[in-house]
Specification:
Helices cover 76% and strands 2% of the residues. By secondary structure, it is mostly helical. The protein has one domain. A hairpin with a 7-residue loop joins strand 1 and strand 2.
């Protein structure tokens, strides 16, 4: 019964996640902990492994629709890969309560950021990225109002998102998607598709590190993965058919739900 329940929950949470550029762990992990009572490090490893086929399917479908910015995604992933390996080791050191508090505070601020103008003095993501964006070397950014992007700035964002991914078993999309929207001014659908592409790479390396550390429950990972692959198809279909502004509203709602669920981690 527990396996059927987590399978069904995996479908719904991953469908929502694929629509807004999340890896799925941010919504699903509280249910895994509640149902199976696994230690956080095992939940993180199991979730990252289940994420790999889900994000691969979502990326393939988004690629067909032209929603993936490879150049930005690959450079950010240089930082994410390093960050996720560090985060996997930090998960065994940092107390869970500290991780929860930091995570909730970040989600609250990101929700605030999504609702204020990009040029607001309180939009520290946009202002911070703008200041870091003067650091060379640069790449030319297509599909965004920023004509050039600082490679070090993209790598730094990737490192931060990767650390949280490795520690919490999430894909890092909760940080990457808002930064792509607010910091780089990507269109919502392209921000979602690019975030999922990056999450696929992050999840692969994070899962590999957790496999090395023996932090995987393979039976649960298989069941979750099957549900998430179905959800990936549903979510990418919703993404394609929804208007850009509606996607931004979806992102806000899912982030809000994620922050509430984090209280039960």
């Amino acid at each position: 019964m527990d396996y059927l329940l987590i399978f069904l929950i995996s479908i719904f949470t991953s469908a929502a996640s694929a629509t807004v550029g999340l890896g799925g762990g941010i919504l699903l992990i509280p249910f895994i902990i509640l149902i199976f009572a696994l230690p956080v490090k095992y939940v993180a490893g199991t979730m990252l492994l289940a994420m790999v086929p889900y994000t691969a399917i979502a990326t393939i479908r988004n690629l067909k629709n032209g929603y993936v910015n490879f150049k930005i995604g690959l450079i950010m992933e240089i930082g994410s890969i390093a960050g996720v390996l560090l985060g996997a080791h930090f998960s065994a050191i940092i107390p869970n309560v500290i991780l929860k508090i930091v995570f909730i505070l970040i989600v609250i601020y990101l929700l605030f950021t999504l609702k204020i103008p990009k040029d607001s003095p309180y939009n520290y993501i946009a202002r911070g990225f703008s200041r870091m964006n003067i650091i060379p070397p640069y790449i030319f950014c297509q599909g965004t109002t920023i004509t050039r992007c600082s490679s070090p700035a993209l790598i730094f964002v990737g490192i931060v998102a990767g650390i949280f991914s490795g520690m919490l078993g999430i894909g890092g999309g909760f940080l990457k998607t808002p930064v792509l929207l607010v910091g780089l001014h990507l269109p919502p659908k392209e921000a979602v598709g690019t975030a999922l592409f990056m999450i696929m790479i992050t999840a692969f390396f994070g899962a590999a590190e957790h496999i090395y550390l023996h932090h995987i429950n393979y039976q649960i990972a298989l069941i979750i993965s099957c549900g998430m692959m179905i959800g990936a198809y549903i979510g990418t279909t919703v993404l394609k058919k929804s208007p850009e502004e509606q996607i931004k509203q979806y992102i806000f709602i899912v982030m809000l739900v994620a922050g509430i669920l984090a209280l039960f981690r």
